[in-house]
Automatic annotation (TrEMBL):
Keyword Ubl conjugation among record annotations: no
Lineage per the UniProt record: Eukaryota, Fungi, Dikarya, Ascomycota, Pezizomycotina
Key words, A-Z: Amino-acid biosynthesis, Aminotransferase, Branched-chain amino acid biosynthesis, Pyridoxal phosphate, Transferase
Protein name (database record): Branched-chain-amino-acid aminotransferase
Enzyme class: transferase
CDD domains: BCAT_beta_family
Cellular component aspect of the GO annotation: mitochondrion
UniProt cross-references to InterPro entries, sorted A to Z: Aminotrans_IV, Aminotrans_IV_CS, Aminotransferase-like, B_amino_transII, BCAT-like_C, BCAT-like_N, BCAT_family
Annotated spans, Disordered: 1-22
GO BP, sorted A to Z: L-leucine biosynthetic process; L-valine biosynthetic process
C-alpha cells in the first residue's frame, strides 16, 4: 500500500467496526504467514521429531459412568508437549507421562489470559477402528484461536500428525471397547516468566486425554453426588435440556470481540451465571445479546431452532458467523452440512433471531424443536427456556419428542463409530504399546 500524507488534524476515534477489521486483518495476516511459511526463519512444528518417554506408573482404566469418569479429571497415562520460544521456534514434541507443568508465577498465562484450547473426541468404532471426527476443522480453529490471542502459529497438518500419533499411542488401552470414546483437550499457554502486557515470547502446546461421561445420554447421571458438577439431561428429572435466558446485564460475547475464538476468557466469566442457572433447576444459560435479545449460544454449545416460519416453510435457524459473537463449532458445521444434503424439506438459515420470535412461534404453534450442538453435550434437545418471567416450552417439554434432533444425532454417531463410511470419520493408526 502506498503511504499517504499526514495532515495536522486530529484523527477520529476508532469505531467498533474499524477496530474489529484491524484485529481481523492482523489475525488473517499472521495465519497467512504461517501457512505460506513466510514467517521468520525459526523452527517450525515438526511431527517427525516427536519422541516418546513411556510412563513407569500406568493407571487403571475406570469403569464407564464411575465417579472417576464423572470427575472429568481422570486422564490417560501420557500427554504430548511441544515448547516454543520467540528466538528458536518450536522444539521437538514429546509424548511423556502425564504430570504437572512447571511454570513461573510471572507466566503470562496467569496474568493476561494468554491461552486457548480445543475440545474433541476419539471414538472406538463398531469395526474396532479408532476415529477422529473432522479433526481438520479443530486444527484450523486451534490455529485461529492461537493467533487471536497472540500465541505462536503452526502448520495445521503437523498438528494433526501429532494428534493422531498421540491418540494412536493411547487408544489401545483407554478406548479399547467398541462404542466407547475419550475426550481430547489440545491446549496452548504463554509461559514466558515476565510481567508486562506484550506478545508472548514463550509458549507451551500440550494435548491430554480425559475420561468423560456421555453427557448427551438421558440416563447419564453421576453415581455419586460428589462425582461431578455437570449432569445429564435428566439428572434433575427433566426431559430434555432446560435453559435460563441471560439477563440484560450479562453478556458472553460481542461483535468485534473474541467470542469466535476458543479461549478461556470466554468461559470463566460465564460461570457465575451458569451456577445461578443450575441452582434454579436449569442445565445451561441461553446467552442473549443486545436490546433486541438476539439468541446466540446455549452454555458452551451452538443453538438451533426448528420451526415453521411465517411463510409456512419448515426452517432450521441458528445464529450466524462473521461478527465474532459465536464459536464456529465443528458439530454446528456438521449439522448444517448434513441437513442441507439430506433434508430438502427443511430450509437452513443462518441469521440473527430473537427471543420475541421464539415466543411468537410458540404462541402460534409453529415451534417444533430446539437443541444445543457441541462436542461435550453433542446433540442435546431442549425442553424449555425461561426468559424474564416467560416460559417458552418446546413440544419435547410437553410430552412430545425430538425426532429431528435425534435423527441428526444418529447420523453423526454413525460416522463417528464407523457404522457409515464418510470422509468426516478419520481413522487413526494405532501403536500396540500396552
Amino acid at each position: 500500500m502506498a503511504p499517504t500524507a499526514v495532515t495536522p488534524v486530529s484523527p477520529p476515534s476508532p469505531t467498533l467496526d474499524s477496530t474489529s477489521k484491524l484485529t481481523k486483518a492482523g489475525t488473517e495476516n499472521t495465519i497467512a504467514k504461517t501457512v505460506s511459511n513466510t514467517a521468520p526463519a525459526v523452527a517450525e512444528l515438526d511431527a517427525s521429531k516427536c519422541t516418546i518417554t513411556p510412563t513407569l506408573n500406568p493407571k487403571r482404566v475406570p469403569a464407564p459412568n464411575s465417579p472417576e469418569v464423572w470427575s472429568q479429571g481422570y486422564t490417560s497415562d501420557h500427554m504430548l508437549t511441544a515448547r516454543w520460544t520467540e528466538k528458536s521456534g518450536w522444539e521437538s514434541p514429546e509424548i511423556r507421562p502425564y504430570g504437572p507443568l512447571s511454570i513461573m508465577p510471572t507466566a503470562s498465562v496467569l496474568h493476561y489470559a494468554t491461552e486457548c484450547f480445543e475440545g474433541m473426541k476419539a471414538y472406538r468404532g463398531d469395526d474396532g477402528k479408532v476415529r477422529l471426527f473432522r479433526p481438520d476443522r479443530n486444527a484450523k480453529r486451534f490455529l485461529q484461536s492461537a493467533t487471536r490471542i497472540a500465541l505462536p502459529g503452526f502448520a495445521p497438518e503437523e498438528f494433526l500428525k501429532l494428534l493422531k500419533r498421540f491418540v494412536g499411542f493411547e487408544a489401545s488401552k483407554w478406548i479399547s471397547e467398541p462404542g466407547h470414546f475419550i475426550y481430547i483437550r489440545p491446549t496452548m499457554i504463554a509461559t514466558a516468566p515476565a510481567l508486562g502486557v506484550q506478545k508472548p515470547r514463550e509458549a507451551l502446546l500440550y494435548i491430554m486425554m480425559v475420561m468423560f461421561p456421555a453427557l448427551d445420554e438421558p440416563t447419564a447421571v453421576p453415581t455419586s453426588p460428589s462425582s461431578g458438577t455437570q449432569m445429564g439431561q435428566e439428572a434433575k428429572g427433566a426431559k430434555g435440556m432446560r435453559l435460563l435466558a441471560s439477563n440484560h446485564d450479562m453478556i458472553r460475547a460481542w461483535p468485534g470481540g473474541f467470542g469466535s475464538a476458543k479461549v478461556g476468557a470466554n468461559y470463566g466469566p460465564s460461570l457465575v451465571a451458569q451456577g445461578e442457572a443450575r441452582e434454579r433447576g436449569y442445565n445451561q444459560i441461553l446467552w442473549l445479546f443486545g436490546e433486541e435479545c438476539y439468541v446466540t449460544e446455549a452454555g458452551g454449545s451452538n443453538f438451533f431452532v426448528l420451526w415453521i416460519n411465517e411463510s409456512g416453510k419448515k426452517e432450521l435457524v441458528t445464529a450466524p458467523l462473521g461478527d465474532g459473537v459465536i464459536l464456529e463449532g465443528v458439530t454446528r458445521a456438521s449439522v448444517l452440512d448434513l441437513v442441507r444434503r439430506s433434508r430438502p424439506d427443511v430450509e437452513v438459515v443462518e441469521r440473527k433471531f430473537t427471543m420475541e420470535e421464539l415466543i411468537k412461534a410458540e404462541k402460534e404453534g409453529r415451534l417444533l424443536e430446539g437443541f444445543g450442538a457441541g462436542t461435550a453435550f453433542f446433540i442435546a434437545p431442549v425442553a424449555d427456556i425461561h426468559f424474564r418471567g416467560t416460559d417458552v416450552v418446546f413440544p419435547l417439554g410437553k410430552g412430545g419428542d425430538a425426532e429431528f434432533a435425534m435423527g441428526i444425532k444418529k447420523d453423526l454417531k454413525d460416522v463417528m463409530y464407523g457404522r457409515a463410511s464418510h470422509e468426516w470419520g478419520v481413522v487413526v493408526p494405532e501403536e500396540k504399546v500396552y
